[in-house]
């Protein structure tokens, strides 16, 4: 139904506008008594065999929603009804920011891909916290784990980036289950320079110190770009070992435009979707093999089928996340992956 009727209709309109329209629709229909229960019956698979224990957390199933879809924590409860085992909000920054000028989101239909140059558009971490701390969405009452993806404001120079990440970390600490440090988006000027060994080690050590100062600690993960060289990936393995962070998310969007067919393939921004499938899996396998499985990996990038998900898990990922595949394939994809895992 989604691919035959809903997606063709949605794809007639501007991607960013239809994204916000879809959010409004999902929120409204979930207010209809009994509707969320119907959605859950269609898509949610409850089975103990799907549970994963990582970072001291219990994930109901290993299929999550990647950051960027629910940036401002506006719809995580409703989205959990589609069967996700966890949802990552953000990327959040200390201060609200508009992001880059529109138009900044592009479908590449021939490639089953998306290019975005959003630029960390969000309402700021304080606004998101107000939603997260509402009694109806507290950590105890949620049916899904929430990750907090954090970044820096565009106007913050890299030499002060640590301060922005600390602000977001402390603001979100009581309201998310784990953290993701985003230094790999290609859409904030100079952000990817923070992936270099020295600044990244410093940033992660500071966040680990903040974590240690709390009464209890939250898992901290690092999200990396797919465009890193083997030498840089080996540096990532060393950094994870030296800072003792809890894991890696591989990967973010790519700046590569190899073998694309769509007319708008030259748009500036990060590319996600099918063209990223192989590269993200290569990165997962490299990190897993070269580290001797020393840390957990969440695999994301180009998962459009159950086979794509299984390939990433077999390559060394412990969990997977969807974004562009969710847009192209619909919520049925989550169910297909979980069913395949039960049959595997």
Key words describing this protein structure:
three-stranded antiparallel β-sheet, alpha/beta, eight-stranded parallel beta barrel, 16% strand, 344 residues
Please give a structural write-up.
The protein has 344 residues and is an alpha/beta fold. The chain has one domain: Aldolase class I (TIM Barrel), CATH 3.20.20. Helix content is 38%, strand content 16%. The protein has twelve helices and 13 strands. The strands form three sheets. An eight-stranded parallel barrel has the order 3-4-7-8-9-10-12-13, surrounded by five helices. It has a three-stranded antiparallel sheet with strand order 5-6-11. The longest helix has 16 residues. The protein is globular. The mean pLDDT is 96.
């Amino acid at each position: 139904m989604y691919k035959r009727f809903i997606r063709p209709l949605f794809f007639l309109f501007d991607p960013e506008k239809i994204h916000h329209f879809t959010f409004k629709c999902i929120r409204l229909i979930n207010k209809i008594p009994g509707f969320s229960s119907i959605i859950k019956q269609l898509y949610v698979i409850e089975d103990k065999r799907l549970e994963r224990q990582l970072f001291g957390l219990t994930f109901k199933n290993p299929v999550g929603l990647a950051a960027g879809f629910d940036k401002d924590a506006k719809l995580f409860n409703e989205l959990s009804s589609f069967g996700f085992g966890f949802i990552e909000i953000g990327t959040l920054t200390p201060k609200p920011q508009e992001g880059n000028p529109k138009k900044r989101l592009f479908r590449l239909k021939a490639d089953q891909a998306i290019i975005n140059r959003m630029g960390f558009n969000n309402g700021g971490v304080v606004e998101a916290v107000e939603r997260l701390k509402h009694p109806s969405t507290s950590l105890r009452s949620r049916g899904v784990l929430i990750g907090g993806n954090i970044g820096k404001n565009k106007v913050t120079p890299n030499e002060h980036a640590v301060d922005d990440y600390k602000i977001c970390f402390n603001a979100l600490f009581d309201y998310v289950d784990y953290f993701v440090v985003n230094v790999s988006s290609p859409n904030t000027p100079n952000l990817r320079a923070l992936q270099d060994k020295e600044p990244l080690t410093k940033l992660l050590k500071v966040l680990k110190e903040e974590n240690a100062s709390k009464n209890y600690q939250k898992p901290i993960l690092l999200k990396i770009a797919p465009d890193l060289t083997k030498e840089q990936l080996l540096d990532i393995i060393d950094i994870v070992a030296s800072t003792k962070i809890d894991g890696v998310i591989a990967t973010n969007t790519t700046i590569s435009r190899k073998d694309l067919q769509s007319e708008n393939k030259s748009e500036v921004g990060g590319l996600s979707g099918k063209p990223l499938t192989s590269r993200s899996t290569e990165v997962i396998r490299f990190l897993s093999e070269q580290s001797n499985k020393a840390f957990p990996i969440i695999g994301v990038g180009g998962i459009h089928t159950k086979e794509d998900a299984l390939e990433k898990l077999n390559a060394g990922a412990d969990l997977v996340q969807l974004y562009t595949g969710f847009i192209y394939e619909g919520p049925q994809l989550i169910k297909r992956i979980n069913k395949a895992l039960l049959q595997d």
